[in-house]
Structures are given as structure tokens and as C-alpha cells.
């Protein structure tokens, strides 16, 4: 629960989706990129790459503790979060972000907005939903050290899937 509260606080303070993690290890970034490149070449689902950093990390002796497990999850969250934030910035600055459109709210009066406005709203809504969902994910082990592990596992899954969704959104343009 503290992790989710910290994520929410950092997100609000940063004014965006960043989780304010440690700098990404270039080896972790390279491992994920290699997996995603292979998935694209072979036509397999990129979701299979979720766990590319965490999995091998968890097999090391120092990952046998809760702290070690959280560190492994955190390393992969950092890689996916970096990827998510890069594609998000690219989308805001690119064609989709610059797109001029009109939306009609329930009030019935249309208003002109940009794609960047829509993307920002979508990302903020996703952050709120992820935080609530991942807070709930820890409930089965509430009060124990496993709650934080379940929460982090959720954050990893949700962050990776959002990064992949944003990449698909950019690719469709």
C-alpha cells in the first residue's frame, strides 16, 4: 500500500506518468529491447517479454528475500516505465498529439481540443486506475510482506501493458 501511495504522490508531484525510479541499468534495457525485437521479428506477442528482467534476477541468491524480490521487480518496472514515458512524450509531440479535433461533452457544447489533450487525459485516467487496481492486488496478503510483492507485480504488469499499448497507438498512425 505504501508503494501505491508513493507512486500516486510522485505522479502528482511530477505532473505526469513518471514513477521517479532509479536510473535504468543499460543491461536491463538491452535485455528487454532484445526480447521485444525478437517478438516483432517472429510475430509473437510482445507481452511475452514481461518478466525479461525480473525472471533471471529472481533466480539469483540475493533475490531470496522480500527485499531482493522487490528489487528485481523494481528493476523491470524501471525499464518499462522509462519506455512508457519515452513513447508518451513522442506521442504528445508527434502527429497524434498535434491533431486538432472536437469533442462534445455531456453539456452538448462542442469544444476544440488536441490529441495531446486526449492522450494526457487517457494517461491520467490509466494512472488512477492502475493505482487502484494494484492497491487491491495486495489485499490477499494484507498485513504481510507478500502484499507489497503482489502490488509490485501488478504495477509491473500494468506499466508494461500500457507501454505496449502506447507503442501500438503510435504504430497505427
Describe the structure.
This protein has 173 residues and is mostly helical. It has a domain of 113 residues: Up-down Bundle (Substrate Binding Domain Of Dnak, Chain:A, Domain 2). The chain is built from 7 helices and 2 strands. A hairpin with a 7-residue loop joins strand 1 and strand 2. The N terminus is likely disordered.
Question: What name is given to the CATH topology of the domain at 2-15 and 49-90 and 116-172?
Answer: Substrate Binding Domain Of Dnak, Chain:A, Domain 2
What fraction, in percent, of the residue positions are helical? 55-70%
Assigned CATH architecture of the domain at 2-15 and 49-90 and 116-172: Up-down Bundle
Order of helices and strands: HHHHHEEHH
Tally of alpha and pi helices: 7
Question: TL;DR of this structure?
Answer:
Helix content is 68%, strand content 5%. With 173 residues, it is mostly helical.
Write the topology of this structure:
Elements (H helix, E strand, L loop, with lengths): L1 H13 L11 H17 L11 H5 L7 H28 L1 H4 L1 E4 L7 E4 H23 L8 H27 L1
Antiparallel strand pairs: 1-2
Helix pairs in contact: 1-6, 4-6, 4-7, 6-7
Features:
single chain; mainly alpha; globular; Substrate Binding Domain Of Dnak, Chain:A, Domain 2; two-stranded antiparallel sheet; 173 residues; 5% strand
Amino acid at each position: 500500500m505504501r508503494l501505491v501511495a508513493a507512486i500516486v504522490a510522485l505522479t502528482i508531484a511530477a505532473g505526469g506518468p513518471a514513477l521517479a525510479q532509479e536510473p535504468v541499468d543499460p543491461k536491463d534495457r538491452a535485455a528487454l529491447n532484445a526480447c521485444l525485437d525478437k517478438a516483432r521479428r517472429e510475430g509473437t506477442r510482445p507481452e511475452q517479454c514481461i518478466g525479461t528482467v525480473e525472471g533471471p534476477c529472481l533466480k539469483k541468491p540475493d533475490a531470496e528475500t522480500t527485499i531482493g524480490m522487490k528489487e528485481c521487480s523494481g528493476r523491470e518496472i524501471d525499464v518499462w516505465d522509462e519506455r512508457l514515458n519515452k513513447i508518451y512524450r513522442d506521442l504528445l509531440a508527434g502527429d497524434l498529439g498535434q491533431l486538432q479535433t472536437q469533442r462534445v461533452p455531456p453539456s452538448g457544447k462542442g469544444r476544440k481540443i488536441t490529441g495531446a489533450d486526449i492522450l494526457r487525459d487517457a494517461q491520467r485516467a490509466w494512472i488512477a486506475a492502475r493505482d487502484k487496481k494494484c492497491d487491491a492486488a495486495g489485499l490477499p496478503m494484507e498485513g504481510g510482506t507478500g502484499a507489497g510483492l503482489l502490488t509490485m507485480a501488478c504495477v509491473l504488469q500494468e506499466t508494461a501493458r500500457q507501454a505496449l499499448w502506447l507503442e501500438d497507438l503510435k504504430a497505427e498512425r
